[in-house]
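Input set for joint prediction.
Command: fold jointly, output tokens.
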Amino acid sequence: MRRTNLLIRFLLLTLAVIAVGCEEIIEPKAPQASPNAIFEHLWTDINNRYSFFEEKQIDWEAKKDIYSPLILEDMSPFELFDVLGDMLAELEDGHVNLLSTFNRSRNWSWYTDFPLFFDEQLIYDKYLKTDYRIIGPLHAQTVNDILYVRNSSFERKLTARHMDEIVRLMQFHEGLIIDVRNNGGGNLMNAITIAARLTDEELTYGRQRFKTGPGRSDFTPWVPLRILPHSGEKYLGKVAVLTNRGSYSTTTFFAQMINTLPQGRLFGDQTGGGAGTPAYAELPNGWTYRFSASQVIDLDGTQLEFGVQVDELLTHPTDLIPGRDHFIEAAINWLKE
Amino acid sequence: MKRLLILAFLIFIQLLALAQKNQRTILINTGPQNTWEREFAYSPLVYKGSSMGFTLGYSSVGEKKTDEVYLHYSRLPLQNGFNAGLTATHASVMTYTFYKADWLPEKFALGWSNNNALSLRNFEDSQNFNPRFDFHTSFGPAMRYQTFFGNQQQWRFSSQANWQVIGFLFSASYVTSPPDAFLHEQSTFNAFWQSIRFFQPFQQQDLGILNQLFYQLSNGNEIGIGYRFHYTSLENAQRSQRSGGHYFFQLNFKL
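tokens >
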């Protein structure tokens, strides 16, 4: 009898120890994923955390009035996606997207509405040719004793060794051209890696602030954005950077870094902007979205979201040179002066 | 300054408690841990999954007073219902101090607990502002039930619970990973100080249960199994919630 009691007691206690999955009992229910709930979630989060409503003079409440009636409880996911994508497109921001398994909404008017003045075939035929150097993500070639460097993206890692090679090559060249046209951005560290080789003193190139709350003016104080000079070899001669409306996001930051260099000069067309760092979030139905959650201004207080202006604007039809890239030619002329 | 004094006072009490010397034991346990997590700054969806959890602990048992310290670590690959991933890292230092009051039934002890818990959340689909995180150090009451049974009282079952009611919270900001104060140009200490928030009763919640069953070996050491449950809900710039159940096998070594 005593053994039986002991056994029962043992079994009950064992059960108490291991069979109490409290974490499963209190697990929250999945949020409502109806079209209306998804719309409300997206509209509210953008309302609370998007950073450029005032600068772009967007009445987000009015957008709700426009798009909310288009949400129907029996609409298909494809229809819902289109309505939500159209609503987000009102922000006219390349850092705003809705992502599903079947599509990605976007507004690329920051470059599609403008000529790009960039013919890749011409660049490779006339300037880079076939024997250009491939230095990490950079393509480099000597053009009239100038080192022409094409950087099509800041996505790929640019290392100190890559920049060591660029700086070494500059011993044999009279000037440097960095072509970042149609560079849609990437990792800001790659832009800093280049700029840090072009200065021997600390430079403040802009100021940044982040959203801190749902109010339109809920931001952190402005924080300086700086370039710290590389401790090793540097190139401190003239630098021409070529930009166009397709130069976006990190490339806008890079253009602004060059803007602050005393020996730097921007050629071509203004950048496309994209200075708001995108934050990512998820909807109740598993779709994700991103949106700008910060602002950057230059040293004069101008928002970089709308692009960095160039020193030498080359968008007039009379600037064009048949059979040549007039951005590169203008840069060479300046570097040869 | 007021917050600093309160923190110093609570830490002082904690150190006093640990300074007592009695029957001392080192424990180690491991086993599967189920966890769910929800971080409203990124998603209203629950992420859940399982992995192994590890705990290293120490206890000091006296006639009237027991002190325990548990260092727990787990790294868990979690998924939501749409197969999006989140890597969650949890680390905590949990202490209990129990007193056997004369007016309490023999098998019960009352006391207090201190939880110092860090949670890191890396959302795989979020390319910026990872990881989201929170750290809290909090204090609250604890209760324990313990019974011995078997022919030679070689079996021991204990169940203890804690509820954290007051403390401090340090967590990711409204948008960015570091708290806002770390984005300003100032010393790390100042930034840290400005980022601390009160862990307020009913606004922040943290509670746990620890059930254990041990068999004492002839050399005085113990082997056993257990289940550790915790639930945390923190509200700062954003709200985060998590809960986990750790099923473990444990070895206790008497010192």
